[in-house]
Automatic annotation (TrEMBL):
Cross-referenced InterPro entries: AAA+_ATPase, ABC_transporter-like_ATP-bd, ABC_transporter-like_CS, ACT-like_dom_sf, MetN_ABC, MetN_ABC_transporter-like, NIL_domain, P-loop_NTPase
Gene Ontology MF terms in the entry: ATP binding; ATP hydrolysis activity
This protein's GO CC annotations: plasma membrane
Function: Part of the ABC transporter FtsEX involved in cellular division. Has ATPase activity.
Biological processes, Gene Ontology terms: amino acid transport
Protein name: ATP-binding cassette domain-containing protein
Pfam families: ABC_tran, NIL
Organism the protein comes from: Streptacidiphilus fuscans
Subunit structure: Homodimer. Forms a membrane-associated complex with FtsX.
Alphabetized UniProt keyword annotations: Amino-acid transport, ATP-binding, Cell membrane, Membrane, Nucleotide-binding, Translocase, Transport
Domain of life: Bacteria
Transmembrane segments: none
Limits of the ABC transporter domain: 2-241
Keyword ATP-binding: yes
């Protein structure tokens, strides 16, 4: 649904060049929620603004729903942008307009009658759970309600794609959860493809099907959450699902001289029988250092860190046994 190829954006200011995007290839499939995460300055905002050409890339291509946006004329681009909704961190609502009028804003140049626009706004406000706030003004709403209005407005043109620029960054954790839940429902009910940027791993964990990690203008890692969790050495997987503790340090006698192994299992697979079989078959004392189960992308994922006595070379066979059982096994230290 969204594909960027070798996307570059260089800002020129005060005689200096800043490379904000340095050859970004991104592929967002139809109907998925795709999150781009990265620290401040990584290029996330620039990327999302290049996807609807609010920012014109210096080079590279942007395809949305099969259309190459960089080669459209100004009027074609205006029309195409209507099918790409966008929500913003600070909502960008007009203070002097009512909630319903804010939602109708993108429909004003579309040839719909006043009555049709009002009916559409009412339908969208109902969809985001704010049917009773149509006549209120933005100042009378909470942050979460303002963002719901922002989302309703973004949906006014019946978009196939919704871009979300840190939509929950200004909200408290509980409101964040409810707005993310709304995005998920809209994704499922309307088949909406959602591309969101965030600096919070929790957002990725709770709502995304796929994710990309950006650093210094580049996508350094990407994939579905399941792929990432199954990828040895994945930085995103480590951040999605940190397994604290267990790194052997001087004086930490029980772990000294042992091999730490991280085991990831998904769905209903239970790791416990494998551990006891491993202990029995190979006569090793398996020390469970840490374990956790979390819901990631709507699926149960478990991780366990175990310590096997001896060096890695001494544990090649037991580690191979765990891998043969279909578990994802990564040697941590
Ligand atoms: N209009 C601009 N003019 C000059 N440099 C810019 C402009 N917009 C962004 N930059 C620079 O481009 C780089 C990427 O910025 P961008 O805002 O895309 O990153 P980000 O990952 O979204 O960060 P943040 O989370 O802080 O918004 C930064 O070095 C930034 O200073």
């Amino acid at each position: 649904m969204i594909t960027t190829s070798d996307l570059r954006k260089v800002y020129r200011a005060h005689g200096r060049d800043t490379v904000a995007l340095d050859g970004v290839d991104l592929h967002v499939r139809t109907g998925e929620v795709y999150g781009v995460v990265g620290t401040s300055g990584a290029g996330k905002s620039t990327l999302i603004r290049c996807v609807n050409l609010l920012e014109r890339p210096s080079s590279g291509s942007v395809q949305v729903d099969g259309r190459e946006l960089t080669s459209l004329s100004a009027s074609e681009l205006r029309a195409t942008r209507r099918s790409i909704g966008m929500v913003f961190q600070h909502f960008n609502l007009l203070a002097r307009r009512t909630v319903a009028e804010n939602v109708q804003l993108p429909l004003e140049l579309t040839g719909l009658t006043r009555r049709e626009r009002a009916a559409k706004a009412a339908e969208l406000l109902d969809l985001v759970g704010l049917a009773d706030k149509a006549r209120a003004y933005p100042a009378q709403l909470s942050g979460g309600q303002k963002q719901r209005v922002g989302i309703a407005r973004a949906l006014a043109g019946d978009p196939k794609v919704l871009l979300s620029d840190e939509a929950t960054s200004a909200l408290d954790p509980e409101t964040t959860r409810s707005v993310l839940q709304l995005l998920r429902e809209l994704n499922q009910q309307l088949g909406l493809t959602v591309l969101l940027i965030t600096h919070e791993m929790d957002v990725i964990k709770s709502v995304c099907d796929s994710a990309a990690l950006m650093r210094a203008g580049k996508v350094v890692e990407s994939g579905t959450l399941n792929e990432l969790l199954a990828r040895p050495g994945s930085e995103l997987a480590r951040e999605l699902f940190p397994l604290g503790g267990g790194t052997p340090v001087a004086g930490d006698e029980p772990l000294q001289g042992s091999t730490l192994v991280d085991i990831t299992f998904q769905g209903d697979a239970a790791v416990q029988p494998f551990i006891s079989q491993l202990a029995r078959t190979y006569n090793v004392d398996v020390n469970i250092v840490g374990a956790a189960v979390e819901t990631i992308g709507g699926r149960q994922v478990g991780r366990m860190r175990v310590a096997l006595p001896g060096s890695f070379e001494e544990n090649v066979v037991p580690i191979g046994y765990l891998r043969e059982q279909g578990l994802q096994v990564e040697v941590a230290a």
